[in-house]
Amino acid sequence: MDAADLDRQARTLSGCIPPALVARLLDLGREREVEFQAGRGEWFCALDWARLLGDRQQYEHALKVLAPYVATGW
């Protein structure tokens, strides 16, 4: 994970799965795909997956999902 790359992706929505597509995947019940992509380093998947886990009160798991991004200092 690279902070500069994460920043670029978040600002430009390029080179990543965009937030609207992540939301659509979740709407279609494709939670496992979002979880898988989050594990591969897809920021917007990780963000929404962590939110979903938080909604389910699975806070420890949500923090683990976000840990690689926090570790970049971004």
What does this entry look like structurally?
The protein starts with a helix and ends with a helix. It has 5 helices and no strands. Helix content is 73%, strand content 0%. It is globular and about 30 Å long. It has 74 residues and is an all-alpha fold.
Secondary structure tally, helices: 5
Number of distinct beta strands:
0
Distance between the termini: 10 Å
- Protein structure class: mainly alpha
Would you identify the regions where 5 or more consecutive residues have pLDDT less than 50?
none
SSE string: HHHHH
Largest beta sheet, briefly? none
Helix content: over 70%
Mean pLDDT: 95
Based on CA atoms alone, the radius of gyration comes out at 12 Å
Principal-axis shape: globular
Beta-strand content estimate? under 5%
Topology of this protein?
Layout: H1 3-12, H2 19-27, H3 31-39, H4 43-55, H5 59-71
Helix pairs in contact: 3-4, 4-5
Any descriptors?
single chain, 74 residues, mainly alpha, 5 helices
Structure, briefly:
The protein is mainly alpha-helical and 74 residues long. The protein has helices spanning 3-12, 19-27, 31-39, 43-55, 59-71.
